[in-house]
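Memo to structure team: turn this sequence into structure tokens by end of day. - J.P.
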Amino acid sequence: MPQLNPAPWFFIMLLSWLTFSLLIQPKILTFLSTNPPSNKKPTTSATSPWTWPWT
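Reply from structure team:
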């Protein structure tokens, strides 16, 4: 059964992960974030309890 032979597929997987790790990933990580997180504190709105008409 050719599916169980890892010889060609293991090399392809290893080559693709090395390409991603060494070439593509550093280029992607150099991009600036388009929406950087802000240091503002989240605002909380005042809520009133719900008055249930049947209680």
